[in-house]
Design brief:
This protein has one domain. It is built from 17 helices and no strands. Helix 8 runs antiparallel to helix 9.
Length: about 500
């Protein structure tokens, strides 16, 4: 596949969304079966403790940007020797992170579980679930540089296929847990979750060694300058990862502290939906990210800016389309999905989706700033605000506010960071904010404003009929109002060409 082509973006996006469709459906049913098999109490505990493995996936997704950024830059220069050097430095850094995680997380986790986790059963079961999750997390870190190489080389089908396979395996095991009476289903579910997260990394490693043996050949790199450069970049990426995980896990810990494990069940259900919907935006960004980096490194700033605006707008529209049914009637969907809906789950889902949609406005900006390499100001400003949201949420909940108030705080911080990212992008890259506002933000906001009246209508028709009408109406709004004339022409020509082939 030729690199730096719009065709590559389209092909990769299609692959990513096919994978998303399958994993989203599998993930929804997995959560349903897991809730049935474990019960509200154990599922809530898994959301607090065993759920760390899901949060490590977030960390890996963020940390892989370090490897992708430097490897993409070296590939753009056509320097295989430099690519191998960067790969080995990245591998050593991530092995070090894995060891550090083991040394810090194990005693801290055991202390927190022993002193603060509310659980009716044997607390040693909770500790075992935590230990399983930590081991899975450590193994997953080792595969990050290989994943970074795959993304930089735009071999998306490799991790898409493996991701689909292991999602289906997890679904199958969760289904079996419903009907088989095992002594400790919580530990079994934690184990299969850990395996399904770390096992794909061994596939990445095998593929990379077969396809690019020279690029992944292990060697000791003695260039201190390269270590310093990547470590400096990695520490700010890690700061962002800590903030993202801190906010997500902080919600679970705060709810567990001020409420109970059953309330965490509602949060766990909502988080599952949020993760699946967020994957929509991340998939599009992941398929465009290498092109943004290569365009920036090549000095093609006009294309870089164009890709950034495209990433932001299309990620928002796709996420809005996926979120619309939940915004129209979240209670009906949760009841259809789970049968018995945990208290507070609907409002948790609704507020999490709103937060996601706001955050999606900035998709693409981080990739462009990461391509520049000067990420300190960006990471420090944005992620300090995210960490601050945990403190504010704690103070609110301490006053006796309902659990969903913490998401009000997260939404306010998401709005604040939208403006912060704009300011830092202009100062770091010198890019025109008005270009992004005209070509991405303004069309997105107009579509939302025109869609809002539909959400306020209380139609008496069957919920599924209302959702179908909402999706059709939203598609028309996006096509007529959201897309530019050039984009509409492109969409029509693509549809016409497909129809002619048939």
């Amino acid at each position: 596949m030729r690199e730096n082509t719009n065709k590559a973006i389209v092909v990769n996006s299609v692959i990513m969304y096919l994978r998303l469709g399958i994993t989203a459906i599998a993930g929804l049913f997995t959560t349903r079966f897991a809730l049935q098999a474990l019960g509200a109490n154990d599922f809530g505990i898994f959301s607090v403790v065993g759920g760390i493995i899901s949060l490590i996936v977030i960390v890996n997704t963020i940390m892989v940007s370090t490897s992708t950024r430097f490897i993409s830059a070296s590939i753009g220069k056509g320097d295989d020797v430099e690519t191998n050097r960067i790969f080995n430095v990245s591998l050593l850094i991530h092995i070090s992170i894995a060891v550090l995680l083991l040394c810090l997380a194990t005693p801290i986790g055991k202390w927190y579980i022993t002193n603060y986790v509310n659980f009716d059963g044997d607390i040693n079961d909770v500790i075992r679930v935590f230990n399983i999750s930590i081991i899975g997390s450590i193994l997953s870190f080792i595969g990050v540089p290989y994943n970074g190489l795959l993304i930089a080389k735009e071999r998306f089908f490799v991790f898409c296929i493996s991701d689909v396979v292991f999602h289906l395996i997890k679904l199958f095991v969760a289904y079996l847990l419903v009907y088989y009476h095992l002594e400790n289903k919580l530990q079994v579910y934690a184990l299969i979750t850990a395996i399904c997260v770390c096992a794909p990394n061994f596939i990445y490693i095998a593929y990379c060694y077969k396809k690019w043996p020279l690029l992944v050949k292990l060697r000791i790199v003695k260039d201190g300058t390269l270590y310093k450069k990547m470590l400096d970049f990695s520490k700010w990426v890690a700061y962002g990862a800590i903030a993202q995980v801190g906010q997500a896990q902080g919600a679970a810990l705060l709810v567990n502290t001020f409420f109970n494990a059953v309330m965490n069940t509602a949060l766990g259900v909502a988080t599952s939906i949020k993760s699946l919907i967020m994957m929509v935006a991340q998939n599009l960004t992941k398929s465009i990210s290498p092109q943004i980096t290569k365009s920036y490194v090549a000095g093609n700033h006009k294309r870089c800016m164009s890709l950034m605006a495209t990433s932001s707008k299309f990620a928002f529209f796709v996420m809005l389309l996926i979120s619309a049914p939940f915004l129209v009637n979240v209670e009906f969907l949760l009841n259809l999905w789970l049968g018995q809906v945990p208290l507070y789950a609907p409002i948790f889902v609704y507020l999490m989706i709103v937060e996601n949609l706001i955050a999606t406005f900035n998709m693409g900006i981080a990739e462009a700033i990461f391509a520049n390499g000067n990420i300190k100001k960006f990471q420090l400003s944005v992620n300090t605000n995210i960490l601050l949201s945990i403190v504010i949420a704690y103070l609110l909940l301490k006053t006796g506010r309902p659990a969903y108030y913490l998401f009000y705080v997260y939404i306010v911080i998401a709005i604040l960071n939208t403006f912060v990212r704009q300011i830092i992008m202009h100062k770091t890259l010198g890019y025109d904010n008005m270009y992004l506002i005209r070509n991405s933000y303004l069309p997105s906001i107009i579509v939302v404003l025109l869609f809002l009246p539909f959400l306020l209508l209380k139609l008496s028709w069957h919920p599924i009929v209302v959702m179908i009408i909402a999706e059709i109406y939203l598609c028309l709004l996006i096509f007529i109002v959201g897309l530019s004339t050039k984009e509409r022409t492109l969409v029509v020509s693509k549809i016409s060409s497909v129809c002619r082939r048939k």
